[in-house]
Amino acid sequence: MGKTVLGTEKWQEGGHSWSTAGNVLHALAKAAGRDHSLVAVMGLTGLAFRIQVLPGVHIAGPTAFDFAEVFRRGLRNLGLTVRIVDGMKPGIGDNVNLLGEAATSLKTMQKRDIHQALPEALDLIHHAVDRGYPVLAWDLSIPEFGMLYGYDDEHKLLYMDECCRKDTLSYENLGRGVMEEIFVMAVDSASNLSFKEGLRGALEMILEHYAGKEPNVPAEAAKGLESYDAWIEAFRSQGVEANGNGYNVAVVGDCRKYAAGFLEEAARLLEKTEDAGGNVPLRLNEAAETYRQLAQTFAELHVLFPYPEGGKPNDPKVAPQAIALLEKAKKLEIRGAEQLENLSNALNS
Q1: Could you give the dihedral angle defined by the CA atoms of residues 256, 250, 317 and 232, in that order, rounded to the nearest 10 degrees?
Q2: Among 57, 51, 53, which Cα is nearest to 240's?
Q3: CA-based nearest residue to 235, from 330, 95, 337
Q4: pLDDT digits (tens, 9 = 90+) for 238-282
Q5: 72 vs 93, 105, 199, 201, 253, CA distance in Å?
Q6: Are 325 and 174 in contact (CB under 8 A)?
Q7: How far is 251 from 80, CA to CA, in rounded Å?
């Protein structure tokens, strides 16, 4: 019987993004001795460049990807390997925001079955926390990513931080969230990797995502550049769910701000090295400008569709404005993808 609770403040400095995965991955990297900014983590893991759109522009679009594949590969670009317990289910659930508070209540949670992956997940959590490492976890109380940073065997409690809210969770309730899924991940080992090598890996990931070559994405999800066509079609058919659309706009727009910041930061770092070559810093800054314009386009969409209310996406007077902005965003994202492909070629030449 033991109890270990880690201090989290030193890992959570540097702001918060709308990507809860990015926030927690940043904390995991800091705990593993990587002094990367949140901007760098968002870029090197590819999260700053992701886009998936589900039918109706469902709220789950930003998390409609294979967590294990993307996080394992993304953290490899920071020189980190991970251990994972993956108890995810296929398919997309309901928008929790539309279900009411009863869906996330403790009483409702306790009525759900104990998850079969619970023993393995608790073992990983204990192992990581005993080494001084926090754990990324999915759907602790809502379908977002949170951090587990302690355990208490006597009272069978996990210490959690989810969306800037600290609380405790009973051992048996891990995996009894709304989605009834378990996904936990912790850093296993760290090795030296240059920023340039990490950037190469990140660009490879990002370009594969843009091209729709990423495996294990839900069948109903449009991914990468094709997401814009699905998004535009939802507006044309007046089939947009307001709350979900507002969330997608907020997340993708915020991520593109991080994309611009990452490319600028990469240019500054590579300017200091002698092996940058190929006008890479200049190309990075040019790409950063494209993503700044992209973020601004989403800022205009956010005015039309503020989260959580979501505005009136199916209003015949509003939808044409949204379509025009999404078409502009698509052109900018295509330009950005071309710039990143040229950068990748220059770095690999």
Answers
A1: 60
A2: 57
A3: 330
A4: 999 999 999 999 999 999 999 999 999 999 999 887 566 668 999
A5: 24, 32, 15, 12, 24
A6: no
A7: 26
Reading phi first (left if > 0) and then psi (alpha if -120 to 50, else beta), residue 218 is in beta
Q: What is the DSSP string of 30-77?
A: HHTT----HHHHHHHTSGGG--EE-GGG-TTGGG-S-HHHHHHHHHHT
pLDDT digits (tens, 9 = 90+) for 135-153: 999 999 899 999 999 999 9
Query: Residue 189: exposed, middle, or buried by beta-carbon count in 10 A (0-12, 13-18, 19+)?
Result: exposed
**Residue count (the chain):** 349
d(CA 62, CA 133): 26
Residues 6+ apart with CB under 8 A from 108: 102
Which three-class secondary structure string do you get for 237-295?
A: CCCCCHHHHHHHHHHHHHHHHHHHHHHHHHHHHHHCCCCCCCCHHHHHHHHHHHHHHHH
Report DSSP state, residue 141. Answer: S
How far apart, in whole angstroms, are the C-alpha atoms of residue 57 and residue 270? 38
Closest CA to 176 of 118, 239, 260: 118
% of the chain with per-residue pLDDT over 70: 99
Q: How far is CA 180 from CA 157, 169, 306, in A?
A: 18, 14, 29
Residue 132 has which token pair?
A: 């001084």
Q: Are 298 and 329 in contact (CB under 8 A)?
A: yes
CA distances from 346 to 86, 193, 264, 280, 300 (A): 37, 19, 17, 7, 34
Cβ(180)–Cβ(141) below 8 Å: no
Strands 157-162 and 3-5: unpaired
What pTM was computed for the model?
0.96
